[in-house]
Structure formats: C-alpha cells, structure tokens
Hints:
This protein has about 300 residues and is of the alpha+beta class. Helix content is about 40%, strand content about 25%. It folds into 2 domains: about 15-130 and about 300-305, 3-Layer(aba) Sandwich (Aminopeptidase), CATH 3.40.630; about 130-275, Aminopeptidase, CATH 3.40.630.30.
Amino acid sequence: MQPYVLIMLEFKTLSLEDKTWVDELVMCEDCPCAGYNFGTIYLWNRNYRHLVARLGDRMITKLRYSDELAFTFPVGRGSLRPMIEALGEYCAHKERPLLMQGVTEKQLAALEAEYPGHFEVSEDVDFADYIYLAERLATYSGKALHSKKNHCNRFEAENDWDFVPLTRELIPGCLDMLDMWTEENYQRLDKSIAYEHEALLKCFAAYEKLGLEGGVLRVQGKIVGFSVGEFTSSSCFDVHFEKAYSSMNGAYPMVCREFTRMLMKKYPSLVYMNREDDMGLEALRRSKISYRPEFMLRKFSARWKDE
C-alpha cells in the first residue's frame, strides 16, 4: 500500500463531549449495524477497549481482542482512501497487519471498489446482528410468533401492569431489579455478564447525556423489566439492553413488544429493530431466533493481503 497521506492516526477514548460529531458520522453511514453508534463504543469500552480516531469526515474504531489488533470499518462520508491509507501507515508502524472486523456486505463492496482484490475476507458468523421488523415485534403477528402473543395475553390477564418511558426517577428501581435479576440467573450467566453490568451502570449514570431511549414494565408499580437503546440508522433502532424476570411468564415478550410499540408511536420512520448478536452463545441464539428475525446482518473480517 502506497501512502496517500502522511498522517499518523491519533486514537482516543471517547468522552461524552464527543457524542455530537460521532452521532453525525454514524448517521451519515446510515448502517443498521450495532457496532458503530456512540452508546456501543462508550458503554462497552472496558470490554473491547474501544479507541477512536477521526480523519476528515470518517471515524474508525480500534479494537483489541487478546493480542490481535483490529479496527472497524471507517464510517462517515466522503472518500475511503485517505482513512484506509492512514490506517495502513499506522499498522505498518505498529508492525501489525491491517485487519477490519464487523464489516457488512455493503461496506465490503465499498472496499472492493476502492481496492479490488486487496482484501482477504472471512465471515464472522457469531457476530451477525439479528434484525427484526418493528411492526412484527409490536404485534407478534403470524403463526411463527403465536406463542409470544399467547405469553403476552396470559401476562395481561394475570397482572395489573403498565409500560412507561424510562426516566431518571425510575433508574434506582431498575438497578434494584437488575440486582435481583442477576441473583436469579447467576448460575447460567456467561462471564461476560460482568462487563454488561458495568455497561448498564455507565448507561444509567449518563442516561440523559447519552440520549438513550428506554422503557420500563411494571406490575402493581414494581419494575419487572426494562429495555434501553438508541437509533443506529435513520430507520433502525439498536436495543442495547433488555432485562425481565424469566420466572414471570411473558415478561420478556411484553418488554420487547411494548418497547417497540412505544418507539413506533414516537418515531414513525422506525422500520427495524436490531437486537444485536448472540456472541456465539447457544441459549442466546435460541432466544433471538424465537423472535423470528427478518434477516441477519452478516459481518466479515477484511485483512489486507501481503504484497
């Protein structure tokens, strides 16, 4: 790769002050992928050690999995070449290969158009996002989702319930519910739950500044479930967190349905709900499949071929 710009990328940890420009570039990309929005990067940076760099109107995120250095696709607008060339220079300086992960098919096509035949591609099967039609989650229409509808019907018949927007006043109750949920599910939880717990604490601490949307399911005033997320494109909402008491029949389908209904009423442009990947966990995969995704957003690794 011949240097196009002699600029060494400068990576930094995101702060809340960066949200405005990150949101702008993410919305320019207008991709339903869950990996680029501000909340994902900011809330999970301890687990994935996210660092970001901006060059012109594109942003790239640096990831580190064990000893492997990897990057996301540079999202934003304008030519890809300045960022890719700067990234190649950065990787050469670090004596590491240029590797991008979580690249969508559309983004692969953009790389191929700019650098035909220069990237070796492999699919990241465990990290495909589950994308659902919002209208189907809001109604559980169709035979495939009939059991979800039945669970909701039973929940509604057995409980005095309501579903309300998540506000600062409700966060202490959500934290209490999260502690109970963790105790109830401790034996079956993957070790990554510790990172999720920390991400949720960061989410609640800066809830308003992060511009997140949330909803809370209550039974007789007691919180039994909640969901939180943000838009990742003009028509797709990314669900970062969803918790409910599994011991309460129908609580999870109710949270999913009511949160989707709330968002659709507030945002008529909403078409899809991204419920993120399953991390290769079989139980999580079964759960996500049971809601019948409209499609899987496939993701790939793209590694620069040695000359």
